[in-house]
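Q: what does this look like with nicotinamide-adenine-dinucleotide bound?
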Amino acid sequence: MQAVVTGGAGFIGSHLCDYLIAHGHEVVALDDMSTGSEDNLQQLVGNPSFELVKGSILDKELVNDLISGSDTVFHLAAAVGVHTIVDNPLSSLRTNLHGTENVVEAAAEHGARYMVASTSEVYGKNDSDGLTENADRILGSPLKSRWSYAAAKGLDELVAYVYGEETGLPCVITRFFNIVGPRQTGRYGMVVPRFVSQALAGEPITVYGDGRQRRCFGSVFDIIPAVVELLENPSGHTQAVNLGGMEEVSIKGLADRVIQLTGSSSEIRFIPYEDAYGAGYEDMQRRMPDTTLARQLIGYEPQRSLDDIIM
Ligand code: NAD
């Protein structure tokens, strides 16, 4: 395949580039380096099958030009991270909405199959057991969601879906639930790398809220092959598919586990949500994917445990 990976210098995107190159594909990564880093792609520098283009998905001409030479597009570029989104809601909305329009439009014009990265946030403030795609296969509940991020991702899903239906091109929407792994930084509010770096530095581990909120964490190494398989498998096309881990843990339990695995002497410090994110912030008590659809479509079975993910 001749693939374009938007957000290719980011956490998930760089692992996807590694995976595609290792499987013999040609890859162009497009990234504006806002949260991504060239360090994530060090291992691919000089590889004749790989090219990094620094630029924005908001540059319609550039996006169109790159995609015109490809047959497959993985669209991962987005403004991400709680702080980025809370501090810059409207510019995040612009990137996540218009950038996706540019990418999907170019894929449609040039007949490239495409994948669009979405998020568990489209389920809104819903903490029922095992969030499933069946009730709201497309669009989730963006009007009951947190932040412009979720609303934009919900609209991205709709754009991806409608273009897929109209053009008949293979397309897949992946709803990621808390994906974790090497190269993810804690700078943008991601909880696992933040806890690990606090533990390794012997600093207090800062738990927002009372720590009883429960989450599942998925390994990037489990989801990358699943993303590629979903796009290659016709039965997954034009669907939104949950991807994530299944092992549930409270955030306080996660902090305890990180302290234990790193042998740290850090204490746990509880910070009220409003101090961390400002007044009016709400968090879900539970966030767990139902991955039945991914299991049915591609036999998705996450292999990595929470301890594997932390270590
Ligand atoms: P990341 O910040 O590491 O990756 C996003 C990449 O997009 C970065 O490299 C950034 O520089 C790039 N980018 C941002 N704006 C851009 C623009 N205008 N033009 C070009 N590049 C731009 O974050 P990630 O965790 O790897 O996220 C990848 C995708 O997965 C995102 O779409 C995100 O919304 C989605 N997602 C991730 C998670 C998770 O748990 N990591 C959960 C849900 C959804």
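The pocket of nicotinamide-adenine-dinucleotide is lined by residues 6-7, 9-13, 30-36, 56-58, 76-80, 95, 99, 117, 119, 176, 178-179 (CB under 6 Å). The mean pLDDT is 91.
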